[in-house]
Design a protein that fits this description.
The complex is a heterodimer of chains A (226) and B (213). Chain A is an alpha+beta fold and 226 residues long. Chain A contains 4 helices and 10 strands; from the N terminus they run E-H-H-E-E-E-E-E-H-E-H-E-E-E. Chain A is globular. In chain B, 54% of the residues are buried. Classes of the chains: A alpha+beta (226), B alpha/beta (213).
């Protein structure tokens, strides 16, 4: 682990009401006991976490038509990185729901139980993400922290293959239980990674550049160009 | 008297308990299992599928509807077998090697079942050779591959090649889908069909099985 890495372990207090709405509990009266049991177990066990550090941008260039950013020995390339042109400091991070339910046996549960568990894990990830952004606001004075995420948005925004370099910047992310597969997939599945930055001149949200216009999780309207 | 419309409506609301009770009631009243399947369960799933395609309902509604359908099928299946009702074809489905995403694949699987197709779900991280082995073992007409990553979608080409090498081109159709997958990618790897959503995938699979595609 890098000497200056910081690990956050926020308290996890999930909302049963939000969980119940997500899984449409009104239709699940015949398995309500299972739903409540899984919520109780996951709520107690899941320990959301985040790892972050401060990193400084060494240089910015354009290779072909693709912006490239050099951060402490790692070279990143992708359209989205153009927003870092006048930025000097970024916060590489990984945040996760926690590993505590990864090997939980759902064998005796209803076939929808994996989705119920994902819904709770998503709340845990939200807790980790909020703690991370709150930390950046209070510790680093970032008024409006924004995040670039490899693999988020359309494929050419910032390719997911860049994930490994981001992990290299952070050192040993397995201190919070997150590992990267050969295909750049993070495990646990409810984990996020990226570079946090702030800029008065930029209003970046990866969701804005995704072409799935009718996505129910869309946070901001679609924008065609960066 | 048992009401097929009520089965369909309860299924659309995801009310598994009510669907099971009504399916049992319909059987008790002597209604044929195929009629219950077609006019009750599959009708309900078709309506949910169309609503999902039109963004009138979202993933949670599809999940609870599929759960209700499963509940109805548990009761109906022995009667369908006794009555020698044939399924409409078999699909082998899975997420390709290196990829562990399964919600999209599961939705497609549920929608395909909702069309009356037999679905063999191989899960996630499935090597190309296994798709072919299982398709042969289950006499499947379709292999359906899912990938959610640009790093793993190239595995779909390996599945197409494995089908070719097994001499099954034309006998088994390869369908592909997932967030980064496009129609042009489908053509570039010589897969048989790309579909952008679960409902379209189920419709295409049924059409393939009925030899009208």
């Amino acid at each position: 682990m890098s000497t200056d890495s910081i690990i956050l372990h926020p308290e996890f207090i999930p909302s049963f009401e939000r969980f119940a709405h997500t899984i449409r509990i009104e239709a699940l009266d015949d398995v309500r006991d299972q739903v409540e049991q899984l919520f109780a177990v996951a709520s107690e066990r899941l320990k959301p976490a985040a790892i972050l550090r401060v990193a400084y941008i060494d240089g910015f260039s354009t290779e072909g038509e693709l912006p490239a950013v050099h951060i402490e020995g790692q070279d990143f390339r992708g359209k989205a990185l153009s927003v870092l042109k006048d930025i000097h400091r970024v916060i590489p991070y990984v945040a996760t729901c926690g590993t505590e339910m990864e090997s939980f046996d759902l064998g005796g549960f209803d076939f929808l139980a994996p989705y119920w568990l994902d819904a709770i894990k998503l709340q845990a990830l939200g807790t980790a993400r909020k703690a991370l952004f709150d930390y950046c606001r209070t510790k680093y004075g970032m008024g409006k922290p924004m995040s670039l995420n490899p693999g988020s948005g359309n494929v050419d925004i910032w390719p997911i293959q860049e994930q490994q370099k981001l992990f290299n910047l952070l050192g040993e992310t397995d201190t919070i239980g997150v590992r990267l597969t050969e295909s750049s997939l993070m495990i646990p599945n409810k984990s996020i990674s990226g570079l946090i930055f702030t800029s008065p001149a930029v209003d970046y949200e990866s969701c804005a550049y995704c072409e799935r216009l009718d996505c129910p999780d869309r946070r901001v309207p679609y924008r065609q160009t960066l | 008297m048992a009401d097929m419309k009520a089965i369909s409506e309860f299924l659309q609301k995801g009310r598994a308990k009510d669907v099971k009770e009504l399916v049992q009631k319909a059987l008790d009243e002597g209604i044929g299992p195929q009629e219950i399947l077609e006019q009750g369960l599959l009708d309900g799933m078709n309506i949910i599928g169309q609503k999902f395609k039109n963004n009138e309902v979202f993933v949670p509604e599809v999940l609870i509807a599929a759960r209700a359908m499963n509940g109805g099928m548990e009761i109906l299946k022995p009667h369908l077998i006794s009555a020698n009702v044939q399924d409409k074809g078999t699909v082998v489905i899975g997420t390709v090697k290196g990829d562990l995403h399964d919600i999209g694949k599961n939705l497609v699987s549920m929608m395909m079942k909702g069309k009356g197709l037999q679905v063999v779900d191989l899960g996630t991280d499935v090597p190309a050779a296994r798709f072919v082995q299982e398709a042969i073992a289950h006499n499947a007409k379709i292999i359906a591959c899912s990938a959610l990553l640009t790093t793993t979608m190239k595995e779909m080409e390996q599945v197409v090649k494995a089908v070719d090498e097994a001499g099954l081109r034309g006998k088994i159709r390869v369908m592909i889908g997932g967030a980064p997958v496009t129609d042009s990618f489908c053509r570039s790897i010589n897969a048989d069909r790309y579909t952008p959503d679960a409902t379209s995938a189920a419709e295409a699979a049924l059409a393939f099985c009925q030899n009208i595609a």
